[in-house]
Amino acid sequence: MIDVLNNFEFDAESGRIVGYTPADIFAIRKSITEQRLVVLKNVFAKEELLNIRSAVFDHFNSIPPSNPTIESGAKNYWRRDDNPPQSAVKRGKTR
Prior knowledge:
Elements: E1 2-5, E2 9-11, E3 16-18, H1 22-33, E4 37-40, H2 46-61
Parallel strand pairs: 1-4
Antiparallel strand pairs: 2-3
């Protein structure tokens, strides 16, 4: 289910990922087509990733939470599948 590739590097000067072959790209495309998870290990330095994670966490902590009212008939844009029937709550009728 998970394919891990280790031979990639980030070249800060060019801003590109380097160190891969055409065979690597073919393998990644095949994995994605087969709906597998692809992990590119060691592309970024651990310290850099920790800084990014911290910045994202701090950003979302600085925004006040909101829970907007959903109007009748409005699409639920937080759901990728737009609320399919299988996820509907089944409630018993009470009278």
